[in-house]
Design brief:
- This protein is mainly beta and 97 residues long.
- Strands 1, 2, 3, 4 and 5 form a 5-stranded antiparallel beta sheet that branches.
- A hairpin with a 6-residue loop joins strand 2 and strand 3.
- The N terminus is likely disordered.
Length: 97
């Protein structure tokens, strides 16, 4: 048997301006190919995106490309990106920032 209940809340919410601020700069992309490795290191000076706020995606070398599962981190001040795989992989890392 399904029982429906109603929840009443008395929380109040602040008004928020729904208009997002315009971006100050456009997003840029950097692509780093890699071959037969479990670790990819991309120094901040190499990708040149100038931020630790990056989107990181990895793809294999097949056609069409398939996403790879990877762990990754971005150093907060040098912006160095480390990408690690659980097994040897070939493909490319795409950074957007």
């Amino acid at each position: 048997m399904l029982v429906l209940t109603e929840r009443v809340t008395t929380e109040t919410f602040k008004d928020v301006d729904p208009t997002p601020a315009p971006p100050t700069e456009g997003l840029r992309k950097y692509v780093q190919p890699f071959t037969n490795t479990m670790l990819v290191t991309i120094p901040g000076a190499t990708h040149g995106l100038g931020t630790a706020d990056l989107l990181v995606q990895c793809y294999d070398a097949q056609t069409p490309r398939q996403p790879l599962t990877a762990g990754w981190s971005v150093h907060a001040s040098t912006y160095e990106v480390l990408v690690h795989f659980s097994q040897l992989q070939t493909g490319r890392v795409v950074l957007v920032g």
